[in-house]
Amino acid sequence: MATVANYSNIFVRYDLVGTGDAKGAKLSSKDAALQKVIQCVLEGDSDNIVDAVNEALATKDPMVVINEGLIKGMNEVSRLWDEGEYYLPQAIVASDAMLIGLEICEKKLGKSVEKKGTVVTHTAEGDIHDLGQKIVNALLRANGFEVVDLGKDVPVDEVISAVKKYNPVMVTGTALMTTTMTAFEKISKRLVKEGYKIPFVCGGGAVSNEYVQGYELGVYGKDASQAPGMASDAVNGMDWMQIREKWNS
Ligand code: B12
Fold it and tell me: How many other CB atoms are there within 10 angstroms of residue 19's CB atom?
């Protein structure tokens, strides 16, 4: 009877291992350090992304590494997924690598000592796509906002309770699926009923400006980098309609 000499491979999850060659990926940056970061995201290379991000941070601002490295890498993952080149396993390992990179950049961005106000952030009920929300959290914290991070797959009731409890200057929502973004309208209706006039900034792949303009309090967030500016406007006394007018028209 044959015996198994090496047990180690039995426990390797091949369904979660990146292909290592990022098949079909297009080179996206002329900068060698940023290209390495993009490549690590594309290949879901959680081992090498630490060095790649640190190398990029040696000469570049963390915001540049986030926008031109990590987000660009995920955009390319999205394209490859949409073209049927990438499937769940590649997207999972790519997301994991991106989150490792984001954490390093977040540390480098630091936390502003000045506290400007509280923002409640969440990813819609039924939705586990939280990378956009995590970027929003990092940028808000770096710009002096206290973030109450409700996480992903958050029920409408939980968002309303958090607003009552923390009295934030702004609420954010992220949704990547057409089936989950409908929770935003419910949240908006509940907040209005309770008398809140704070901006509810909604973003994520499935969400559009047109959709968000369809409910009260709604402000469309195209890029995570807009979140700190919008929150500052709220702190400075602009109401949700003025913020919508400024950022969405
Ligand atoms: C990565 C990914 C995953 C990862 C998610 C990991 C994670 N932790 O997030 C994994 C592999 C787990 C996954 C699972 C699934 N996925 Co998926 N996934 C993707 C993929 C490839 C990329 C999405 C992404 O992370 N983009 C990068 C981030 C950074 O972008 P973003 O969130 O949009 O954020 C940017 C902006 O929108 C904005 N933003 C976002 N939020 C906010 C908030 C504010 C306040 C502001 C200002 C800005 C802002 O800022 C960011 C940029 O700066 C997309 C493909 C695509 N074309 O989008 C599919 C996609 C989203 N997935 C899809 C599906 C169907 C699924 C699954 C159901 C698959 C399955 N059969 O199991 C499950 C979902 C389970 C669930 N209940 O949620 C579909 C959704 C279809 C739809 N329209 O409804 C997509 C579109 C793929 C497709 N074309 O079919 N997925």
Answer: 14
The boundaries of the domain holding residue 87 are 14-109
Domain end position, chosen among 55, 77, 109: 109
Mean pLDDT of the chain: 90
* Nearest Cα residue to 98 out of 51, 151, 38: 38
Give the integer Cα–Cα distance in Å for 220 and 209: 5
Same domain, 64 and 185: no
pLDDT at 113: 73
* Residue 156 pLDDT > 50: yes
Q: Is the CB of 16 under 6 A from ligand 1?
A: no
Phi-psi region of 217 (alpha: psi -120 to 50; beta: other; left: phi over 0): left
pTM: 0.90
CA–CA gap between residue 104 and residue 65 (Å, rounded):
10
Q: How far is the CA of 122 from the centre of ligand 1 (A)?
A: 14
Ligand 1 pocket check for 54: Cβ under 6 Å: no
Q: Is 73 in the pocket of ligand 1 (CB under 6 A)?
A: no
How many structural domains compose the chain? 2
Task: At 114, list the tokens.
Answer: 């000045």
Q: What is the pLDDT of residues 58-104, one digit of tens each?
A: 999 999 999 999 999 999 999 999 999 999 999 999 999 999 999 99
